[in-house]
Amino acid sequence: CFGGKKMKKTLFVLVLVLTIVSSLVAGTLATYTKTLDPIEGEVTAKQFYIGATETAFADVKLAPSEETSWDFSVINYQGDTLTEVDMDLNIVVTVGGDIDGLNVALYEGDTQLAETDVKNGTINVNIDKAFNKNVKEQRDFSVKVLWKNGQVTDAIDTANADAFAKANIAVTVTGIQDLG
Predict the structure, then answer these.
(1) Start-to-end C-alpha separation, the chain
(2) Residues 175, 127 contacting (CB under 8 angstroms)
(3) Whether the predicted pLDDT of 56 surpasses 70
(4) How many other β-carbons are positioned within 10 Å of the β-carbon of residue 175?
(5) What is the pLDDT of residues 4-53, one digit of tens each?
(6) What residues form DSSP beta bridges with 174?
(7) Which residue, 108, 52, 45, is CA-closest to 76?
(8) In the beta sheet, which residues pair with residue 160?
(9) Is the Cα dihedral 17, 22, 28, 34 positive or negative?
(10) How far is residue 21 CA from its own chain's centroid?
(11) What is the dihedral of CA 48, 52, 53, 57, to 10 degrees?
């Protein structure tokens, strides 16, 4: 088909030469390649902690003209772990129940922050930059409850006692990262 033995020999030599030339050319066109070790780092979340010195308030009984106070502190550390960002505080005092004439107020130290005079009310206080980053701090608060005499009629006060009326008071403290 190819014209004989001589043609086959020529074709074989030609294929052999092309194979050798291809190998040489491929080898000479090679380039150096080297991959460096990865350059690594980590991103770790900064510490953000808020805690309270109290987890529950003692139940109390009051009559008209009597008052009580519950103290609590908010802290930005746990042992040696400090909050690493500035923090705002939001304090919500929720009053719900059946006693007419209660006055509930939130204080920090001797400073009154807010109050409510309704049997179902809410106090909502925001404190900007309440805690500084990397500084161990404590803020002291109190909830003062006064059953004001004369706020409602004596008949309503007596009805509250006869019905064993109750008021639930809950304090919720939320720490929020201060963004400046």
Answers:
(1) 90
(2) no
(3) yes
(4) 19
(5) 777 778 888 888 888 777 766 665 556 778 888 989 988 888 888 888 88
(6) 90
(7) 52
(8) none
(9) negative
(10) 69
(11) -170
> Which tokens belong to 47?
């510490």
Give me the count of residues in the chain.
Answer: 180
Q: Per the structure block, which two tokens stand in for 6? A: 């001589």
CA distance 83 to 97: 36
Identify residue 2 by its one-letter amino acid code.
Answer: F
> Is residue 93 within 8 Å of 74, Cβ to Cβ?
no
**CB neighbours of 1 closer than 8 A, spacing ≥ 6?**
none
Q: Is 28 helix (H, G, I), strand (E, B) or coil?
A: helix
Residues 175, 49: Cα–Cα separation, whole Å: 8
Host H or E run for residue 156: helix 154-162
Question: Which of 42, 45, 47, 41 has its CA nearest to residue 85?
Answer: 47
Can you say whether residue 129 is alpha, beta or left, with left for phi > 0 and alpha for psi between -120 and 50 degrees? Answer: left
